[in-house]
Design goal:
The complex is a heterodimer.
Chain A lengths: L1 E8 L3 H8 L2 H7 L3 E8 L2 E10 L2 E15 L3 E10 L2 E13 L7 E12 L7 H29 L15
Antiparallel strand pairs in A: 1-7, 2-3, 3-4, 4-5, 5-6, 6-7
Helix pairs in contact in A: 2-3
Chain B lengths: L4 E3 L4 H11 L3 E4 L5 H6 L7 E4 L8 E4 L2 E5 L4 H4 L6 H8 L4 H6 L2 H4 L8 H8 L3 E6 L2 E6 L4 E3 L2 E2 L6 E8 L4 E8 L7 E12 L2 E10 L6 E2 L1 H7 L6 H14 L10 H20 L11
Parallel strand pairs in B: 1-3, 2-3
Antiparallel strand pairs in B: 4-5, 5-10, 6-7, 6-10, 8-9, 11-12, 12-13, 13-14
Chain lengths: ~170, ~290
């Protein structure tokens, strides 16, 4: 399974990077995320519940930030595991300044994963469309969250850092 | 894990209670035409399943200038109503008799593309869905219901209980193109509702199926024909706009490249059909 895409976010790169590394923000923006905890400066553990037509299931999720260079890029290696199977993979994102905007960010992401178990019987293109849909929902939610933060805090970089990210 | 319990609640409150008790582990099923193949294939492994066919959601009734369709009304029953002709057309082009006898209108809204042909017609008809939860009912325009591929605005503690279709005068048509004539997934589905006054289009709703992560309107195409008399230039412009703005995808039925071109071709055909003097009657929606 391979996914890739680009999205524009209405916030500076520093703010976007901090948000992506903040478990509270992740909990809010990841569709179906029931719980998430930070177990080390670069590791997260959580539970995501997928509730799709004909399919329900909870997935234990472990994600590790790798090759992180704030506020430019990072990789995420992770594994989702549930009764329907598992998905192990890696996603990378690069943040760039949005052209023509003083405070916008363009995020380019790529990801690949290996599906095992009953889930693997799904057509891979079907799984890719599902993954792309969940990512775009997450990015829309992130953009809304960033806009809310900006409205609440008129000073630049309104989202306060809550975690240190190291390579 | 295999299914250990199957519930058949007799009412919506009972169904909501089961949803609250079992939470996200409960698989909600209406006709079962989406869920059962997934369960039989071992892709979906729910422990607890709730069927809605006895929950009292199987009424179809005209209420004033609206048609109210219970979520578990079967697609076959849409063939028996004349109130909204496009729904009869759409149901008739969906799957096979055996699927239509089991599949429901509510379930059709959750059928992933390229399925969900009736949902495309409902979108062109400006339908609304009623979502019922512990805090009561809320109504959502169908145009705002889907949030992505196989995802919607339905909250975990809610059930989709009915679909309301305004009965408006207008010209409508429904076109589905598949690899076979019948019982086939769509390459593209196009549903159109036009409001026409004195030969001029005063309002247009063009809905596309199998052309994105969920049924979607084509606003550029709608704008291109609004204010026109469906002249060939305006129709051609609308078709080109629809092909540009759709979010075509590749699957086992068709490639993204082919689908995008067929969106243009079939929007052109649908609008050309409506432009014919003997085309579907103006006022045929009522």
């Amino acid at each position: 399974m391979n996914v890739s895409g680009t999205a524009r976010l209405n916030a500076p790169r520093e703010q976007v990077f901090r948000a992506i590394c903040d478990p509270r923000v992740l909990m809010e923006i990841i569709p179906g995320c029931d719980a998430i905890e930070q177990v080390s400066p670069t590791e997260y553990r959580g539970v995501i519940t997928l509730r799709l037509p004909g399919v329900v299931g909870a997935y234990r999720t472990d994600v590790r930030l790798v090759d992180a260079v704030a506020p430019e890029r990072s990789g995420m290696e992770g594994r989702l595991e549930g009764s329907m199977g598992s998905i192990a993979g890696r996603a990378d994102f690069v943040l760039g300044d949005a052209p023509g905007s003083a405070s916008g960010t363009v995020i380019d992401y790529t990801g690949s994963g290996v599906i095992q178990g009953p889930l693997a019987r799904l057509d891979s293109r079907f799984a890719e469309r599902l993954a792309e849909s969940l990512i775009s929902q997450g990015l829309r939610a992130l953009n809304l969250r960033l806009a809310r933060e900006a409205a609440q805090s008129p000073s630049p970089g309104g989202l306060r850092p809550t975690t240190e990210v190291s390579e | 894990m295999t299914v250990t319990s199957y519930f058949l609640p007799d009412s919506v409150p009972e169904a909501l209670g089961l949803l609250e008790t079992h939470g996200s582990s409960l698989l909600v099923m209406a006709g079962g035409t989406v869920a059962m193949p997934l369960i039989n294939e071992g892709i979906s492994l729910p422990g607890v399943v709730m069927g809605l066919r006895r929950a009292g959601l199987d009424r179809i009734e005209r209420v004033g200038a609206e048609l109210r369709i219970g979520a578990t009304v079967t697609l076959t029953r849409l063939l028996d109503q004349d109130t909204v002709p496009m729904l009869r057309q759409a149901a008739g082009r969906t799957a096979s008799w055996s699927i239509r006898n089991m599949g429901t209108v509510g379930g059709n809204l959750f059928t992933p593309p390229p399925g969900g042909d009736v949902a495309v017609a409902l979108l062109a008809l400006d339908a609304r869905v009623t979502l019922t939860g512990p805090r009561g009912d809320r109504t959502v325009p169908l145009s705002e219901f889907w949030t992505g591929f196989m995802t919607s605005d339905l909250r975990p503690d809610e059930l989709l209980t009915s679909i309301t279709v305004p009965i408006e005068p207008g010209a409508t048509t429904f076109v589905k193109f598949g690899r076979k004539h019948a019982n086939t997934p769509a390459v593209v589905t196009v549903a159109v509702h036009l409001a026409v006054q004195g030969g001029t289009v005063t309002g247009a709703r063009i809905a596309l199926g199998a052309a994105g992560p969920h049924p979607m309107r084509a606003p550029g195409a709608e704008a291109a024909i609004t204010g026109s008399a469906l002249e060939p230039e305006a129709v051609g412009e609308a078709a080109a706009a629809a092909a540009r703005e759709c979010q075509a995808f590749t699957d086992g039925v068709a490639s993204e490249w082919y689908r995008r071109r067929m969106v243009g071709v079939f929007v052109l055909r649908a609008l050309t059909e409506l432009a014919q003097p003997a085309g579907p009657a103006i006022g045929g929606g009522a």
